[in-house]
Amino acid sequence: MPRKKNIIQKFRYKSNFNERIGSELANSMNDILYGVQPVLSALRHGKRKLERLYLKKNAKFSERLKEIREIADGFMIPVSEVSSKKLSEMSLNSVHQGVILQCSSLSFSSINDFSKIFSEKHSIIVALDQVEDPHNLGAILRTCGFFNVGAVVVPRDHTSRLSAVVSKASAGVSEWFPVISVPNLARFLSEQKSKGFWTVGLEENANDSVFKLTSDRPLIIVFGNEGRGLRQLVKHNCDHLYRIPGNSEISSLNVSNAAAVVLSHLSKYTKLSN
Questions:
Q1: pTM of the predicted structure, to 2 decimals
Q2: What CATH homologous superfamily does 30-104 map to?
């Protein structure tokens, strides 16, 4: 009898464990977006499955919060008014601005979308070689959206997912901006070079200043990992390497700041900004 009881207990434990893991996996497919701009962008662009909107109870609504409520009502998304404490708990004490959206995760675009996205209007593509910090990815997407870059391309591995943190850091840009995931970034660069793209990488020890760079053809700019920089094979597939000149006491800029400097410079020579 004791042996049979132990077997039953083990079965129940395994069953409960599997249910818990299944629940955690299901929850991992969901996001909790927080902040006015990420939520508004998600509602406007419809790239996620929208599940429930949470608003701060008894709050005086701004025009943008009113717009959020109107869009949610129009899509018949369930709306709950909850305390500010509850919103803080749901957003892990992040700055929620009185609004949270429960929704599905956001997927990357595929390489099949690249030809549809790219056009003469967008003469520049940004590639990120294993940028893993979601704040950096979000900041770069915001910069790319501001300067009208065509798309951001990332490798499938060692890249931050398009999370709520990315959406917040990008001020909602990640909700509509094309971020293309490829299996092999070096191979992608090689293929695009054969199609007429000029590929350049940012490298702190490069000889030439990036301020010498102009764009008279389709251009892919490659930025490296926060700590390791560009991988060797990715570097090998760059037509030229450039550095951002500055104070020699400081080795380099943060990758998101570097992207802002380079794209701001190139906006003088291209149709990046309107």
A1: 0.85
A2: Ribosomal protein L30/S12 (3.30.1330.30)
